[in-house]
Amino acid sequence: MSDGKHVGVVLVSHSAAVAESVAALAAALAGGADAVPLKAAGGTPDGGFGTDADLIAAAAREADEGAGVVLLVDLGSAVLTVKALAEDDELPEGARLVDAPLVEGAVAAVVTASTGADLAAVEAAASEAYDYRKV
Amino acid sequence: MGKERDVRDAEFIRRWMLAMAEAVESEAKHLTDLDSAIGDADHGANLQRGFTAVAEALRAELPATPGAVLVLAGRQLISKVGGASGPLYGSLLRATGKALGDAAEADDAQLREALQAGVDAVVKLGGAQPGDKTMLDTLVPALAALADGYPAARAAAEKGAKDTIPLQARKGRASYLGERSIGHEDPGAASSALLITALAEVAADV
User: Fold this and answer.
1) Closest Cα to residue A39, out of A93, A105, A99, A106?
2) Is B86 an 8 Å CB contact of chain A?
3) Around Cβ B103, how many Cβ atoms within 10 Å?
4) Which domain holds residue A17?
5) Which of A44, A54, A76 sits opposite B84 (nearest CB)?
6) Does residue A47 fall inside a structural domain?
7) Start and end of every PTS EIIA type-4 domain (chain A) (predicted)?
8) Given an 8 Å threshold on Cβ–Cβ distance, is B42 in contact with A50?
9) CATH number, domain at B80?
């Protein structure tokens, strides 16, 4: 994007370690993705497994430079929590839950966002990660 | 029954939420036992954390309208639960509260309509249908029976929860178990019966 703003990426998992590791992996595979606002929002406040709505909403706000934010999630309560937040306008404008596999989608989203692509392109790249068959 | 008896104000809804918090606390172990059979053994603890936060918030401050009480309760559940029951129960209460609007009081017909909006929000969020072995197997028959009064709703809720035992789970983690989910009461259906029971008890007590 010509104004230098990047689409933000938020990774939501039941596990803090999974969210952080997938973020680190995506940043490493993207190479030079330092400019992409990338946030991990995993686990519960007490360090357990689960999802924390406040942590997710804060991560989305932090990842928001004004170019939009994509949220990638693992399963169950992560999906429902992000949907419930979106339903009540508790996510920044232009924040979207993306239907994508977490690991592959995160890599695709971060690489695409690092090129300065817009929200629709980042969202499409993450979703298209489903189309890559392994066998 | 005098006309005043079916007017539901903010204090009524607060008493419902406090009654639910008590019920969840005393049934937490039972809910977690049900969840350990087909889920991840956290339903009791998760709901207890959520409704404890609801009770604390409502003891600290009583919003002016029944709708606002439910919106506040729903927001607490979405924030504090940490499992799928948080957004599901949170959406149920929040959508019910929004449907009540800014009115200072609701009659039973209005409350029933609002609860229907809440159940619709659960359907929309989770994508489940009756028969999928979820909280909807309690809530849908309970709402249908509510037209005949709170005791009828309570009986339908309790029956709905027990009727999940022979069902195979089609939503959530339990669905991964396939046929092995048959033979267990669904924890979300069980906790939903507590919610309807708490409502019936508070309504009988007015």
Assistant:
1) A106
2) yes
3) 14
4) 8-131
5) A76
6) yes
7) 6-135
8) yes
9) 1.25.40.340
Q: Do A76 and B90 touch (CB under 8 A)?
A: no
- Buried b / exposed e across B110-136, counting CB within 10 Å, b at 16+? bbeebbbebbbbbbebbebebebbbbb
Task: Count the alpha carbons within 13 Å of B172 in the hemisphere toward its beta carbon.
Answer: 28
Considering the domain boundaries, does residue A1 fall inside one? no
The tens-digit pLDDT sequence of chain A (135 residues) is 447 899 999 999 999 999 999 999 999 998 867 899 999 999 998 899 999 999 999 999 999 999 999 999 999 999 999 999 998 889 999 999 999 999 999 999 999 999 999 999 999 999 999 998 999
User: For position A126, which CATH number holds?
Assistant: 3.40.50.510
Cβ contacts of A77 on chain B, cutoff 8 Å: 82-87
User: Are A9 and A123 contacting, i.e. CB atoms less than 8 angstroms apart?
Assistant: no
Regions of chain B where pLDDT drops below 50: 1-4
Count interface pairs A-B at CB distance under 8 A.
48
Residue A2 counted as domain residue? no
Number of separate domains in chain A? 1
Residue type at A59?
A: A
Is A3 part of a structural domain of the chain? no
CB contact under 8 A, B87 and A84: yes
Whether residue B172 and residue A44 make contact (CB cut-off 8 A), yes or no, is no
CB within 8 Å: B87 and A50: no
Q: Please name the member of A77, A84, A85 whose beta carbon is closest to the beta carbon of B83.
A: A77
Least CA distance to B174: which residue of chain A? Answer: A76
